[in-house]
Design brief:
- The protein is an all-alpha fold.
- It is built from nine helices and no strands.
- Helix 2 crosses helix 3, helix 2 packs across helix 4 and helix 8 packs across helix 9.
- The chain is globular.
Length: about 190
């Protein structure tokens, strides 16, 4: 992703991209791919390749449905909705386990486990939260959207977005304080 200085609005770029301008779509991608990736981080965890695949899937859907975009809603909100849908669809897919022999494992570089383990554990705990809480976390922590924007994207009041985030944080704190407890955080 490169940064391109362009004074055109997102709505103008969408109209031009729908008309076939690949440069307009490139500007849209460059402006919004990072925010889309931040939204998807809670679904992909530390797997950078998976995150890249999910971002690509988001923008494939953007291309497929760009002509249905209605400028009443800001383009970033529309994009985050698509990203949430892609993330949810990914979370519903069955997990494929690949078995490898010990010689192959010896050739794979292993990252420093300190922070990675904490990140993976937290991502696991987040994945156990109810869907409405995960959506708010994905939009608040990833792209760092304001609660009003989160509410607009999810179609809920700002106060509900704040409440869901507060409740999610409380559940995660309780779970992190006692990680050995295998009780479901959805209670």
């Amino acid at each position: 992703m490169k940064w391109i200085a362009d004074s055109r609005t997102d709505d103008d770029l969408v109209l031009q991209a729908v008309a076939g301008s690949s440069s307009a779509f490139e500007v849209l991608y460059d402006r919004h791919a990072r925010a889309g990736a931040r939204t998807l981080t809670s679904f992909a965890g530390p797997d950078r390749a998976l995150l890249d695949d999910l971002v690509q899937e988001v923008f494939v859907r953007v291309v497929e449905h760009l002509d249905s975009y209605v400028p009443i809603r800001p383009f970033p909100h529309w994009l985050h909705t698509i990203a949430l849908n892609v993330g949810r669809n990914h979370a519903r897919r069955p997990t494929i386990v690949v078995l490898v022999d010990s010689e192959t494992l010896a050739d794979i570089p292993v990252p420093d486990a300190g922070d990675m383990l904490d990140s993976v554990t937290l991502m696991h705990f987040v994945s156990q939260l109810p869907e409405p809480m995960r959506q708010v976390i994905a939009l608040r922590v990833g792209p760092e959207l304001a609660y009003g924007e989160i509410g607009a994207i999810l179609g809920i009041p700002e106060g509900t977005a704040r409440s869901r985030m507060h409740n999610a944080v409380q559940l995660l704190r309780a779970r992190c304080a006692n990680p050995e407890n295998e009780t479901n955080v959805q209670e």
